[in-house]
Every structure is written in structure tokens, then in C-alpha cells.
Amino acid sequence: MTEVLRYAAFTADGTGGNPAGVVLDATGLTEDQMLALAAEVGYSETAFVLPGSGDSHPIRYFSPRAEVAFCGHATIATAVALADRDGCGPLRFDTPAGPVAVLTEATTTGVTATLTSPPASSRPATAAEIDALLAPFGWRREQLDETWPVHVAFAGNAHPVLAVAARETLADFDYDFDALAAVMADAGWATVHVFRQRGPAEFDVRNAFPPGGVREDPATGAAAAAFGGYLRTLGRLTVGNRVVLHQGEDMGQPSRLVVAPDPDSDGVQVTGTGAPIPA
Fold this sequence. Notes:
Radius of gyration: 17 Å
CATH class of the largest domain: Alpha Beta
């Protein structure tokens, strides 16, 4: 019987966060079995740790519908689960998107994990891509914040990044699920990252996730890493600085993600706390 742990990642003050399934021993499981388990768990992603050596762990991620190359919140959840079992320290996850270093630390608020994403980059979206993105939301270009260009950002997966001008637009976040799913399938996008700047180094964010069969994620580590790449490309996030993303508040699942550029690579660091979900 395969043991599936349930952890919340990127919790805010011990509450909220994004739930993930975690299988710490996926030895012998086939892809079909992993997908079936992910569907049974029903979270946006479940992580499966495969046999490795030392602190290096091959890992795969499955949504209820398909395999995902990289998932930030499931990485944080898995790292915290391993820290709970083995103690805190450095880890390395060998993901389908490339190696991901993670450091877990014990703090007064629980175990914190910091992942360093695969190389992050960002490019301007085309006019056609912007039109295709706005249509399922029913938004007009005038509702976007023109001081933040629309980009497609990447950090293991591709995520379009849209800034809205009004907090009310973010609060009313809704879209045609099937229409957006079709657009994203054609483009190969993982989530749509919608944000509004809250302060000099703080952002309110929401993420649409039709490819995973989920309308919205309450905390999206992979998109946060891609967003860090976007900010770095625009010159708005430099080494030594960090930003805080507030996600899930409009869903009643408040989450907190801290994003900083990695000083030693093209990756982006994403930090959050994690905790087991009570049965």
C-alpha cells in the first residue's frame, strides 16, 4: 500500500497554503499508477520521490490530469516532509525540468524551505497571445496596468504574466474554463499568473490552472519563480532584494511566497513554510 502524505505549502502564519500530495517512496510505481494516485488525492499536484542516493532525490509531479515538469508548491511540501522525517538541511531534487536545490530550516514558525528553480527567463507576449489570454477572462486591454508589460515567463514551465490596473479586477477573477484551457494547451502554458502591485516589494497574485483541472491555485511556486524571472528581466528585482507574493487570499486560503534572484545561477529562489494537513 503506497503511503500518501498531505502537506500544505506556503502557509501564511500557520494557515492556508496550497495542499499537495507527497509520496516519499514511489519505488516501482508506473506512470499510470502515479497519475491514478494523483487523481485519487485530488490536489492540483502530487509529488513522487523515486530512489536516489544521499540527499539527491529523483522526483516526478502529477496533476489529476497529467504529468507536470516542475511544481513549486509540491517541491516545498516534499522538502518539508523529508525534513520532518530526516531533519533539516540541503536537498537536491532531480526533476524533469532539471535539478532543483532546496534548503530546509527549522524556524520559530515551523519548517521553511527555499527552492532554487531551473533557469528563469521572460519574453514579451505577442499581440495575438495577449488577445487570446484576455478573451476567456472577458477583459479589455484598458483593464491592464500598462506600466507592467505582458510577458510569457519561464522557470521550468511557461507562465503568461498579466498585471491588472485595479484590485477589483483581481478580486473578480473569473474566466471561461474550457476556452482558457484550449488557449493554454495550444501554447503549452502551465498557469496564467495575474497580479497587482500592493507595495514597493509586495504583490497580490492569482493563478489560473486549467491544465491541471483546477480553476485556481492558492499558491503556485513554479509561477512565483517564473514571476521572479520576469521581474529580473525588467530590472525590478536584483540580487540582494526580494519580493513577497500574497496569493490565495481571495479564495480563503492565504498563502505567502518570498521570491529572490539566486546569486549563483539564472534560477530564482522561492521560500515558504509547510506543514502536514491534519487528517
